Amino acid sequence: MTKILLETVFGVSWAIYLGGALIMSLVWKPVQKYLPPGQTAIVCETMGRKYKWIGLGSLSLFALSWLGLGFQSLLVSKSGLDYSNFTVLLGAVAVILWMALVYLVLSMGLKIHPSSHVRISAVLDSEKRDEIKLARKAAIKKMDLMLKVELMVALLLSFVIALGQVVKI
Predict the structure, then answer these.
(1) Is the distance from CB of 163 to CB of 94 less than 8 angstroms?
(2) Nearest 5 degrees, angle CA 12-CA 5-CA 101?
(3) What's the confidence (pLDDT) of residue 14?
(4) Contact call for residues 36 and 102 (beta carbons, < 8 A)
(5) How far, rounded to the nearest angstrom, does the alpha carbon of residue 48 sit from its chain's CA centroid?
(6) Is the pLDDT of residue 19 over 90?
């Protein structure tokens, strides 16, 4: 029963994370081009805040269920874990990719995304306003790149997990 619950949490949390990454990269990003700039800024800010917590929450549940499944395998196994070097390598690669995803979500959510939504005060001189606009554009470009990298890392981790399941069989 515990294994079924852990596998369900593992699968659902990964599906939520990967689905969110796909929506942000393949749906939301292209739609932004057709919205007025003021609307885009407000909706993007709201979606970014929510995605940060959904992404981190699902990655956390994914990791906890993954650890739980690993410990359960140790408890069920009579002779301990008997994995090949390839399986250990896959596990190490998966952990590194997971850590990269956590880093990407944190850096986008805590640093890059907020800097792309800096408000420009009406009392600033035009030079300072232009400086803020340039910084905001640079943050948006960096965010676009980070979203692409995040999606590539997430898809690569999906492949590694799938490969790990094939090797176990």
Answers:
(1) no
(2) 40
(3) 94
(4) no
(5) 12
(6) yes
| Contact status, residue 10 vs residue 62, Cβ threshold 8 Å | yes
Structure token digits, residue 115: 């800097």
How far apart are the C-alpha atoms of 48 and 167, rounded to whole Å?
37
Pull the structure tokens for residue 4. Answer: 């079924």
Indicate if the alpha-carbon torsion angle 64, 66, 71, 75 is positive or negative: positive
Mean pLDDT, rounded, for 137-155: 88
pTM of the model: 0.81
Assigned token pair, 106: 């944190």
For the stretch 76-101, pLDDT in tens is 665 555 566 677 788 889 999 999 99
| Distance between first and last Cα of the chain | 21
Q: How far is CA 103 from CA 109, 133, 153, in A?
A: 10, 26, 11
DSSP, res 125: -
- Matching residue, tokens 């301990």: 80
What Rg do the C-alpha atoms of the chain give, in angstroms?
Answer: 20
